[in-house]
């Protein structure tokens, strides 16, 4: 059995972010093991966030300061300066961090399947399909199977399917991204498209759904075809790449610690926003705080600044999405038509104060929220959840190039 100072279980966004931040400090002399099932060799996902600065590990691929929002009731555009809405390509993120970490002989990658984590007397064990390792601290970003907590916990999903497209002619304004476009049939669920233009001919166009039931791939394709036909009539395009995924939308409690010497990070540590799915910026802030705590005390502990009222807001919206998903577009229409976009983004990032939140909530349609308070908090009606917690979409799915359309 080999000993390490730190073991990082899971070499995705959270694990690599933590490793890179450690590597940029005096802690780079520590012996670090990163475990994952395989190297990250493809562009398997994209990450987005908004910020006035640049909290990520490297310079984002693209950023926008002008945002569009659309519903059938109206369209709105604002600039969010000094903020920018940032896009990060996962393959560029992986390659950048791999290059940096591989230059440090104290960092080792091994490709094994992590089976279990357990505490030791003075550290923690990681059990894999090839052996057993020990470390002073283990940082885990793997979402191990868990039981549904109780009938008061929401288990919804943000599921999406997108195309990186290349148009035959100039089509997009590369300075303006579409944050949400609800101009399609909702059919009792919450459906919208966002568009990230990289040039006047290239963009990522993603169909996103909030619901309990994850769609079959062909359904997304049909809806994307229809959206492109309606939005860009007569325009021909080539699908350069696809992406597909599922993000949990749940108030399930993800424990920060899995043991005395085992810390959960990323989604496994509860750093995915329940109602938006945004995780990247939260990961960067968390991993930076962990590293600073390690430098100061030798331990990863730091005080989490969690504001309980945002959990209350999330629960209300999750209740509405679950029971009245088809009206959520009206709520977002009120949100974006009556507020400054920067304030909205700060609210979604849990960076507003109570007075700003009263102003925002006071300008939303009260009926659905009062009903959610009555049903969830006063009557405390149990929830029936149909979503399988560990749903996996298209095992073995590979992004690929397809035909010109």
Structure description:
Helix content is 28%, strand content 31%. The protein is of the alpha/beta class. The strands form three sheets. Strands 1, 2, 8, 9, 10, 11, 17 and 18 form an eight-stranded mixed beta sheet that branches. It has a seven-stranded mixed beta sheet with strand order 6-5-13-14-15-12-16, with helices on both faces. A hairpin with a 2-residue loop joins strand 9 and strand 10. Helix 1 (13-23) runs parallel beside helix 2, helix 1 runs parallel beside helix 4 and helix 5 crosses helix 9 (366-378). It is globular. It starts with a strand and ends in a 27-residue tail after the last helix. Residues 389-405 have low confidence and may be disordered.
Q: In percent, how helical is the residue content?
A: 25-40%
Averaged pLDDT, please?
91
Which sheet architecture does the biggest sheet show?
Answer: 8 strands, mixed
* Alpha plus pi helix count: 9
Rough outline: globular
Q: Termini distance?
A: 55 Å
N-to-C order of helices and strands:
EHEEEEEEHEEEEEEEEHEEEHHHHHH
Uncertain runs are 389-405
The total count of strands amounts to: 18
Radius of gyration: 22 Å
């Amino acid at each position: 059995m080999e000993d390490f100072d730190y073991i990082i279980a899971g070499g995705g966004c959270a694990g690599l972010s933590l490793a890179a931040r450690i590597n940029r400090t005096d802690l780079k002399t520590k012996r670090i093991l990163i475990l994952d099932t395989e190297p990250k060799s493809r562009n398997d996902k994209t990450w987005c966030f908004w910020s006035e600065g640049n909290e990520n590990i490297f310079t984002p691929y693209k950023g926008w300061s002008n945002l569009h929002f659309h519903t059938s009731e109206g369209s709105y555009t604002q600039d969010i300066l000094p903020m920018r809405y940032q896009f990060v390509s996962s393959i560029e993120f992986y390659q950048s961090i791999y290059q940096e970490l591989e230059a440090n002989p104290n960092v080792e990658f091994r490709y094994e399947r992590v089976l279990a984590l357990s505490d030791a007397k003075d550290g923690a064990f990681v059990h894999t399909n090839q052996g057993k390792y020990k470390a002073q601290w283990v940082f885990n970003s793997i979402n191990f199977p868990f039981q549904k907590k109780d009938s008061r916990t929401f288990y919804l999903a943000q599921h999406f399917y997108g195309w990186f497209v290349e148009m035959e002619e100039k089509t997009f304004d590369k300075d303006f991204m579409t944050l949400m476009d609800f101009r399609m049939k909702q059919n009792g669920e919450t459906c919208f498209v966002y568009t990230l233009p990289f040039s006047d001919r290239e963009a990522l166009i993603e169909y996103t759904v909030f619901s309990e039931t994850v769609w079959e791939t062909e359904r997304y394709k049909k809806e994307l075809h229809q959206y492109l036909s309606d939005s860009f009539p007569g325009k021909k395009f080539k699908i350069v790449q696809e992406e597909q995924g599922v993000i949990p939308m749940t108030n399930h409690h993800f424990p920060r610690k899995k043991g005395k010497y085992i810390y959960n990070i990323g989604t496994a540590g509860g750093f995915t926003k329940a109602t938006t799915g945004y995780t990247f910026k939260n990961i960067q802030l968390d991993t930076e705080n962990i590293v600073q705590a390690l430098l100061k005390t030798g331990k990863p502990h730091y005080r989490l600044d969690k504001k309980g009222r945002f959990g209350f807001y999330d629960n209300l919206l999750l209740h509405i999405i679950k029971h009245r998903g088809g009206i959520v577009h009206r709520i977002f229409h009120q949100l974006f038509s009556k507020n400054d976009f920067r304030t909205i983004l700060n609210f979604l990032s849990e960076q507003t104060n109570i007075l700003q939140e009263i102003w925002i909530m006071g300008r939303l349609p009260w009926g659905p929220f009062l009903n959610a308070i009555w049903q969830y908090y006063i009557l405390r009606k149990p929830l029936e959840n149909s979503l399988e917690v560990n749903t996996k979409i298209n095992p073995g799915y590979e992004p690929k190039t397809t035909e010109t359309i």
